[in-house]
Amino acid sequence: MSESKIIDARNTFCPGPLMELITYMKQANVGDTLELLSTDDGSAADVPEWIHKVGHEMVSSEKIEETWHIKVRKIK
Amino acid sequence: MSQKISIVCVSGTREKLQMAAMIASVAAATGDAVSVFFSMNALTYFIKGHSAGVPTEGEFGKLLAQKGVPPFKQLFKQAVELGDAKLLPCSMALDLLKITNNELDSEFGPPTGLTRFLSQSEGGQLLTF
User: Fold this and answer.
1) pLDDT in tens, A47-68
2) So what's the ipTM on this one?
3) Predicted confidence (pLDDT) per residue in B59-78, tens digit
4) Looking at chain A from residue 43 to 62, which residues have their Cβ under 8 Å from any Cβ of chain B?
5) How far B92 CA lies from chain A's nearest CA (Å)?
């Protein structure tokens, strides 16, 4: 059964949010969804690049007030 | 496609160590084969129990000291843990510092000479900080 997890990386700077995501991605199971919360605009651009390069799936990315909500799914 | 990235750290300033650590951690966690060779002033920060602060080159270095910026030692550690990066101490630097490999942080690999490092780096990118 796939799970959904929120990773709160607000108030950390590049590459902090990405490294947090990668740490949890390693522990997650295939099919799990991870939602990264980040206040770093640079990471909002860089995380989708990493997801694309490594071969996972971008589900959504939106900025709500000052926080980016970047949802990704582990697919391998 | 993964690539081979070799990084040489010689400077002991916060800006250079931070940039090297950022590249090492992100590249390693993306699947690139990363080796980081530490020599000169860069190596001393990785001696167990080292607690002295890191000098900055300029104003930006002070910004890096603020809360929320991942410290360079943490990023190098993540490069090893998340992406199997190799942290290699320069054998000449160990000799001059009169220390052994066991006195360095546990993430460090074996003492490495230039000949071995250069042949390991062959065909990849080499970045120096």
Assistant:
1) 999 999 999 999 999 999 999 9
2) 0.89
3) 999 999 888 999 999 999 99
4) 50, 53-54
5) 32
Nearest-Cα distance to chain A for B12, in Å, is: 21
pLDDT of residue B1: 66
Q: Which domain holds residue B80?
A: 4-128
Alpha-carbon distance of B46 to B80, in angstroms, equals: 14
Residue type for A67, please? T
Q: What is the mean pLDDT of residues B39-68?
A: 93
Percentage helix, strand, coil for chain A under 3-state DSSP, each rounded to 5: 35, 35, 30
Hey, what CATH class is A4-73 in? Answer: alpha beta
Which CATH number belongs to the domain containing residue B110 in this structure?
3.40.1260.10
Domain ranges of chain A: 4-73
Strand partners, B6: B35, B126
CB atoms within 10 A of CB A18: 28
What average pLDDT does this structure show over A8-16?
A: 96
Distance of alpha carbon A27 from the chain centroid: 13
Q: For residue A5, what is the enclosing H or E element?
A: strand A4-8
Q: Distance between CA atoms of B89 and B106, rounded to whole angstroms?
A: 12
Interface check B34 vs A, CB under 8 A: no
What is the domain count for chain B? Answer: 1
In a 13 Å sphere around the CA of A75, the CA atoms on its Cβ side amount to 12
Residue entry with tokens 């902090």: A16
